[in-house]
């Protein structure tokens, strides 16, 4: 009996140590494999929790990488002026499942469908933002700010690049200048922005519980709806603060504005596709 208890205690100690082990962030691994790329965006595409007593945390990522074609395309602006912009193809890849440690999972539990890292013109930043906000919204090579009938300024992708709205899951809501300005303000404070409150649902416009994420990855949304155990586990990881869940004010520590300069070739994906688009050059 005593021997059995000792074995049980030893097993518990082993599994406890194993559950607390530090698993290197797959984002760091992906960034390293894409060292030669000057521009890319890493989006949290899916997440999962396996096990009951000893839980395993997993992530799956969507990676968007522009590839120059050396060509230019003419676009027509709202005022009738024409503009020549560089033309690229956009490579879209989905990774397999990666195991992550609990701390990293908790950090990004609110960030489904959000970009959690990007590189622009060789500068890497591990920041949480609505997908596409860091490089494409506000970028004059892709679109322009227009005014609607109510006098609100909103972002409009040029016709040739309208597909980017769905590629970055930006078609659910208009992107108003006020939202983009709020994003910039949160970013300057090292905090992620979730788009404010969706008045139809009471949830944030972007992130884990948003309708944007439900459209991006219906299987995750269905799993949240049908698997109460999984849903409760995810819910327990997400901040209960209304400011974090609705307005986007969660403080960021390890993911806030870590900046390095380098340039990557990406190699680990389960599937990929490409679309034509304008170059990632140009400021906001």
TrEMBL record:
Signal peptide, first to last residue: 1-19
UniProt keywords, alphabetically: Signal
Disordered, as annotated region: 239-284
UniProt KW Signal keyword: yes
Name this protein carries in UniProt: Lipoprotein
């Amino acid at each position: 009996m005593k021997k059995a208890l000792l074995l049980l205690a030893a097993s518990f100690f082993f599994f406890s140590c194993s559950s607390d082990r530090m698993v290197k962030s797959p984002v760091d691994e992906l960034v390293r494999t894409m060292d030669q790329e000057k521009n890319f965006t890493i989006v949290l595409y899916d997440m999962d929790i396996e096990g009951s007593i000893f839980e395993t945390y997993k992530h799956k990522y969507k990676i968007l990488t522009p590839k120059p074609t050396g060509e230019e395309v003419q676009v027509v602006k709202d005022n009738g002026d024409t503009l020549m912009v560089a033309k690229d193809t956009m490579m879209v890849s989905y990774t397999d499942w990666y195991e992550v440690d609990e701390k990293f999972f908790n950090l990004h539990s609110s960030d489904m469908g959000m970009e959690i890292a990007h590189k622009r013109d060789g500068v890497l930043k591990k920041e949480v933002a609505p997908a596409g906000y860091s490089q494409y919204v506000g970028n004059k090579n892709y679109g322009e700010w227009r005014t609607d009938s109510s006098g609100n300024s909103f972002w409009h992708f040029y016709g040739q690049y309208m597909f980017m709205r769905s590629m970055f899951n930006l078609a659910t809501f208009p992107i108003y200048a006020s939202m983009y300005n709020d994003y910039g303000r949160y970013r300057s404070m090292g905090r992620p922005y979730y788009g404010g409150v969706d008045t139809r649902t009471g949830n944030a416009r972007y992130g884990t519980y948003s309708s944007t994420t439900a459209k991006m990855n219906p299987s995750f949304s269905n799993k949240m709806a049908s698997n109460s155990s999984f849903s409760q586990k995810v819910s327990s990881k997400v901040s209960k603060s209304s400011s974090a869940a609705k307005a986007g004010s969660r403080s960021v520590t390890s993911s806030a504005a870590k900046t390095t300069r380098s340039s990557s070739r990406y190699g680990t994906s389960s599937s990929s596709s490409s679309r034509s688009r304008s170059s990632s050059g140009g400021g906001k």
